[in-house]
Design brief:
The complex is a heterodimer of chains A (345) and B (806). Chain A is of the alpha+beta class and 345 residues long. Chain A has helices at 2-18, 22-33, 38-44, 51-81, 106-120, 134-137, 177-187, 231-242, 295-300, 317-325, 338-341; strands spanning 124-125, 131-133, 170-172, 191-200, 212-223, 248-253, 258-267, 284-293, 308-316. Chain A has 2 domains: 2-81; 106-341, 2-Layer Sandwich (BirA Bifunctional Protein, domain 2), CATH 3.30.930.10. Chain A has a 7-stranded mixed beta sheet, with helices on both faces. In chain A, strands 2-3 form a two-stranded antiparallel sheet. In chain A, helix 1 (2-18) packs parallel to helix 4 (51-81), helix 2 (22-33) packs antiparallel against helix 4 (51-81) and helix 5 packs across helix 10 (317-325). The longest helix of chain A has 31 residues, at 51-81. Chain B is α+β, with helices and mostly antiparallel strands. Chain B has 6 domains: 2-40 and 168-198, Phenylalanyl-tRNA Synthetase, Chain B, domain 1; 42-163, OB fold (Dihydrolipoamide Acetyltransferase, E2P), CATH 2.40.50; 219-408, Phenylalanyl-tRNA Synthetase, Chain B, domain 3 (3-Layer(bba) Sandwich); 417-487, 2-Layer Sandwich (Phenylalanyl-tRNA Synthetase, Chain B, domain 1), CATH 3.30.56; 504-700, BirA Bifunctional Protein, domain 2 (2-Layer Sandwich), CATH 3.30.930.10; 720-803, Ferrodoxin-fold anticodon-binding domain (Alpha-Beta Plaits). In chain B, helix 5 (245-253) packs across helix 6, helix 7 packs across helix 8 (368-375) and helix 18 packs across helix 19. Chain B is elongated, with a radius of gyration of 43 Å. The chains are: A alpha+beta (345), B alpha+beta (806).
């Protein structure tokens, strides 16, 4: 009888170890220790045995039962640990399911990046109309009456108004600064706002020149604002765009609507300021104009230049996006070409 | 503009330690942009003076000679040369090995090497003028002639650049950065800036005037607003001789070509003090000079006998007979200095910027003189020119004398006098400078500074008073730039905690774009505001109220967009070459004729509306439409704005006969949604696909002040989902079904529509899924059955539905 038990134990252990799944292990459990199992058979036959033998066999049988239950538990853990949720073979190098997202235009992305930075500095975002009058586009901004930019060759005048002047001569805005006067007229001072928008110039297009392009203007007007506070705006723009501190320099420059005005150069990122072809060998790239808002412009906005002063800067978004990604043709921005646009997520 | 540093240094003494690079940087930061710094001596490297010690025939070549030449190296060098004018003791130009020369004056420069010519060793090359940039200095009479330095003061081995004064540095200045500074269009002006930047003395210009006892020369100015001054000096005893080398070098390094001494002197005066100067042959000028507007039909005859047609707005210099030059722009036949010229009339005049600009533009002529006049020159500068002219004629034509002098001077440039408030200056600069520093800087720039209670009275110099300096801000600008913008630390902006930025309209703009791009899968595009007529016509848009461009980019792009749909059609058409299924959107303004006042009553603008347009492209038109509809339906909820409704009111011109809806806010139609009609697609060249479009007036949208949805309690008791398939008449809409039973269920969803087998003609099968539940307790199966029966009954009664088997 004891031999039989030992045989059950040996064969049982083999079966447990052979079981390959949780289901087959359950099967083995029933076979070994279930109501109709082998061990139960043995225990059922105990009553026919000698008391001494009965005790010995009983102990042994119980011992084996425990042994089985322990081994089954171990084996079950082993099986679960090695089990996969999928029955099938799987090629892990297959591409994942792409999200079905679209994308904002790279110009819009740049614009929002800048908006976020300026919003954190308490600037408002401003926008206004594409079509303006000569009064706002030029007169208010202190442009000389015979300034070349007023010519048909440079500005898109609206048919029927091209020979009029001032309030009556209309154009697609050639820059944003005229609109800034509208903001100041409406909101007064102090003011701090950014003004992204599209502007239009009548010119021949090539990889570097466009008829419609994007500018980003930033303005502060306040009492006794010193022009050195305006430097913050410039740093904000460039650091936001390039993600790190960028060396800039401000040098003498002339614009009708600023006094003083300056050109802002940034260190050439291609050569790190050492001088290369991109920067014409001098280590600096001209990126934007800036300056103290001309008193005549403040007057046009109904503000007293003896009380208020302002700081202005305006950066070309197209150029900035081109520098950020290495885009080599400005005309792609208006191409609506998905092969281009889908590169910017 | 080119600036010779040697020339500048005649007027200002700069530190020995100052490098050219530093000087260029300082000038760029404070005054004008220096684009390039170049040594004019570089090209003369290894080109030196040689003295021929002997000339022997070449053993193997008749035209070649073998010379021994002293080039200052201690031992004479053997050089083979084919020059026609070689002789012992001749001072010549020798290119040593390494020199770059134009071989026979042609092609690209080549490097000289020690070589053998017909078997005879030759150390270098004895050069002709055209080979070594000397044709202006030693003009050759035949092509085999080599440069004979003759009595030029020089010694063997001396570098040629030094001999002719070419050991100079040239600054190339960006003319754009000079447009507002008429005072900088001459070397003296640049020297003045450097004197201010480096705080070194500026040499004053001489103030010589012709002897007042000289006979007068008559100049009549008929238009004093255009010609404010005209000085004429009659000089006898001149001729067309070439200038001395120093003058040739100065003129060359200033960016012009030497012509003859008289012309060179006039150009030198212009490049020195910025005063254009002009010489007329005295014998060509009948009687006296008249400055007037041209008469109708009048012509200016040019040297080549061709002529220019003049108009009444052109200012001309005339003698008693006819125009002899176009004022400030160009001369005519009569003003030319010719080989037989012996007596001249020198013009030093002041013309108004406007008149020169206008006439110059009409003739498309820009000259060195007109560029300067266009910037606006002060009348006092004529005095500087006169003094310099007297000095130069005395030096170059020692035998010349002034015969007569006239100076008609109707209008004088007034100096700008500006009160500067000291407190305001300090605040705006953000930094306080000592009085002495302010006074010193301004004085060096030519200002007169008088201190008073409030600050100081700054009297600008005449050369800055022609428009450049007129307000106190200009004075501040001068101070800030000379002290360098870089020297002002960036100060942080003052913080304002009163108002956080709250801009619901701007925010909505961004939410709409981001929702369409990020959640709905649209790609944002930008198109031009001018649209090709083909696409406007394709969209069936009436162009009568279109705003048009006076000078469009192309003849068929004269109309500015009234809708974003035509641009969308074009964009879709182009992308179909590469893609089948895609979604695009654009947000931009559209324009209509009309009257609209944005900022003032006086300014009337056309109507301009920010518009949002989207397109869904793909072969399954029904799917395209519902994708577009889904996007529009989701806008209000996701972008937090007042709700929109969709209803058929009026078909937009581009839409399909059946498949369109209008977009309404309240009762107002603000846009449309629909499939693009087959006709429009054909006209736009869009083939083998379908396309749904939505367009709406963004200005009619109303952002919510905040998110407005309320929290709903999670269900307290279990809810049950049930599906139903019903048969209804074709005429029954989903909206009717939903309306009928929405009050009986917690949620109701459309699953599908089916027509076909097992569905009788004129009917359709609709499958819907609904959620039922109770807030009072768990529904048991009896309660669920009861509710479902009620719903089925309601459907039977309200929409005539019958339950489908299975």
């Amino acid at each position: 009888m004891l031999d039989r038990l030992e045989k059950i134990r040996q064969e049982g252990l083999e079966k447990i170890e052979e079981a390959a799944s949780v289901e087959s292990l359950q099967e083995v459990r029933r076979e070994l220790t279930g109501k109709k199992g082998q061990l139960t058979d043995v225990l059922k036959s105990l009553k026919t045995l000698e008391p001494d033998m009965k005790r010995q066999v009983g102990m042994k049988a119980n011992e084996i039962k425990e042994f089985f239950s322990e081994k089954i538990k171990e084996r079950e853990e082993e099986i679960v640990a090695s089990e996969s949720a999928l029955d099938e073979e799987i090629d892990l190098t297959l591409p994942g399911n792409a999200p079905q997202g679209g994308a904002l235009h790279p110009i819009t992305q740049m614009c929002y990046d800048l908006n976020d930075a300026f919003l954190s500095l308490g600037f408002e975002v401003f926008s206004e109309d594409d079509i303006s009058s000569e009064k706002f586009a030029f007169d208010n901004l202190n442009f000389a009456m015979d300034h070349p930019a007023r010519a048909t060759m440079d500005t898109y005048w609206i048919e029927g108004t091209e020979n009029l002047s001032g309030n009556e001569r209309l154009c697609l805005r050639p820059h944003l600064t005229g609109g800034s006067v509208r903001y100041l007229m409406k909101h007064g001072a102090p003011a701090r706002f950014v003004y992204p928008g599209r502007v239009f110039r009548n010119e021949n297009t090539d990889a570097r020149h466009e008829r419609a392009f994007f500018q980003y203007e930033a303005l502060i007007v306040d009492k006794d604002l010193s022009f050195s506070s305006g430097k913050v705006m410039i740093q904000t723009i460039l650091e936001k765009v390039f993600g790190r501190k960028i060396n800039v320099r401000m040098r003498e420059g002339f614009f009708p609507f600023t006094e003083p005005g300056y050109e802002i150069d940034m260190e050439c990122l291609v050569c790190g300021g050492k001088g290369c072809r991109v920067c014409n060998g001098n280590g600096w790239i001209e990126v934007m104009p800036g300056g103290v808002i001309h008193p005549n412009v403040l007057r046009a906005a109904g503000l007293d230049p003896d009380v208020y002063s302002g700081f202005y800067t305006n950066i070309g978004l197209d150029r900035l996006v081109m520098m950020r990604y290495g885009v080599d043709d400005v005309r792609l921005f208006h191409s609506a070409d998905l092969r281009f646009l889908r590169q910017f997520k | 503009m080119k600036v010779s540093l040697n020339w500048v240094k005649k007027y200002v003494q700069l530190s020995e330690d100052l490098t050219n690079e530093q000087l260029a940087y300082d000038l760029t930061m404070r005054t004008v942009e220096v684009e390039n710094v170049e040594s004019s001596a570089d090209k003369f490297k290894n080109i030196v003076v040689g003295v021929i010690r002997s000339v022997e025939p070449h053993p193997d070549a008749d035209r070649l000679r073998v010379c021994m030449v002293d080039v200052g190296d201690g031992e004479d060098k053997q050089i083979v040369c084919g020059g026609s004018n070689l002789y012992e003791g001749e001072k010549v130009v020798v290119s040593k090995p390494g020199a770059m020369v134009y071989w026979h004056g042609e092609g690209e420069p080549v490097a000289i090497k020690e070589t053998k010519m017909r078997g005879v060793k030759s150390y270098g090359m004895i050069c002709g003028a055209t080979e070594v940039y000397l044709e202006d200095y030693y003009p050759p009479s035949d092509e085999r002639e080599i440069v004979d330095l003759g009595d030029t003061d020089c010694y063997p081995g001396e570098n040629l650049a030094e001999v002719i004064g070419m050991d100079d540095t040239i600054l190339e200045i960006d003319n754009k950065s000079l447009t507002n500074r008429p005072d900088l269009w001459g070397h003296y002006g640049i020297a003045r800036e450097l004197a201010a930047i480096y705080k070194v003395p500026l040499k004053p210009l001489s103030q010589e005037k012709p002897d007042p006892s000289l006979p007068g020369y008559q100049v009549d100015i008929q238009v004093p607003d255009k010609c404010r001054r005209f000085a004429a000096i009659v000089i006898d005893g001149v001729d067309s001789r070439p200038s001395p080398n120093w003058m040739k070098t100065a003129v060359t390094n200033g960016g012009m070509r030497p012509i003859n001494a008289i012309v060179d002197i006039t150009n030198y005066i212009m490049m020195a003090v910025g005063q254009p100067t002009h010489g007329y042959d005295f014998s060509h000028v009948e009687d006296h000079i008249i400055v007037r507007n041209a008469k109708p039909g009048e012509k200016l005859i040019l040297l080549d006998q061709s002529d220019l047609d003049l108009t009444e707005s052109d200012l001309v210099i005339c003698d008693v007979e006819e125009p002899i030059s176009l004022a400030g722009i160009r001369g005519g036949r009569k003003d030319s200095i010719l080989p037989d010229t012996r007596k001249i009339v020198l013009e030093l005049a002041n013309f108004s910027a406007e008149t020169i600009r206008k006439t110059g533009k009409r003739f498309d002529q820009k000259t060195d003189a007109s560029i300067r006049y266009e910037k606006g020159i002060d009348t006092q500068r004529v005095d500087q020119g006169i003094s310099l002219a007297m000095e130069l004629f005395r030096e170059i034509f020692p035998e010349s004398r002034i015969l007569a002098y006239g100076d008609t001077y109707p209008v004088k440039t007034e100096q700008s006098v500006i009160q500067v408030d000291r407190g305001l200056l300090d605040r705006r600069l953000g930094k306080v400078f000592p009085d002495a520093e302010i006074e010193d800087t301004l004085t060096r720039l030519g200002y007169d500074v008088q201190w008073n209670e409030k600050g100081f009275l700054a009297t600008a110099p005449t050369w800055r008073s022609t428009g450049d300096v007129s307000m106190w801000d200009d004075v501040m600008g001068d101070l800030a730039r000379i002290w360098s913008f870089e020297s002002f630390e960036a100060t942080p902006l003052p913080v304002n905690f009163e108002n956080a930025v709250h801009q619901p309209v701007q925010d909505l703009d961004r939410k709409l774009r981001e929702h369409l791009a990020f959640r709905c899968g649209f790609n944002e595009i930008f198109t031009y505001p001018w649209v090709e007529e083909k696409y406007i016509d394709a969209a069936g848009i009436d162009k009568t109220d279109a705003v048009r461009l006076a000078t469009p980019p192309a003849p068929d792009m004269v109309n500015l967009r009234q809708s974003l749909v035509p641009g969308m059609l074009e964009s879709v058409m182009k992308n179909l070459r590469y893609f089948e299924d895609f979604k695009l959107f654009e947000m931009a303004q559209v324009y209509h004729k009309g009257e609209y006042h944005e900022s003032t009553e006086e300014e009337t603008l056309p109507v301009q509306k920010l518009t949002l347009c989207g397109a869904v492209v793909g072969k399954d038109g029904k799917n395209d439409f519902f994708d577009a509809k889904g996007a529009v339906e989701s806008l209000a909820r996701y972008c937090q704005m007042e709700p929109l409704t969709l209803k058929q009111v009026e078909k937009p011109s581009w839409a399909d006969e059946k498949v369109y809806l209008n977009i309404l806010r309240g009762k107002k139609v603000i846009g449309a949604l629909g499939l693009v009609s087959v006709q429009a697609m054909n006209a736009a060249g869009i083939k083998r696909t379908n396309m749904a479009v939505f367009e709406l007036d963004e200005t009619a949208l109303e952002p919510l002040a905040s998110r407005d949805n309320k929290f709903e309690h999670l269900p307290l008791y279990p809810e049950v989902d049930e599906d139903l398939s019903i048969l209804v008449d074709e005429g029954i809409k989903w909206a009717d079904i939903a309306e009928a039973i929405k009050h009986h269920c917690k949620d109701l969803r459309f699953v599908e529509e089916y027509r076909g087998q097992q569905v009788p003609e004129g009917k359709k099968s609709v499958t819907l899924s609904l959620t039922i539940g109770s807030d009072k307790g768990t529904m048991d199966s009896k309660a669920i059955d009861k509710r479902m029966n009620k719903i089925i009954k309601t459907l039977e009664n309200k929409v005539g539905a019958e339950l489908r088997e299975g």
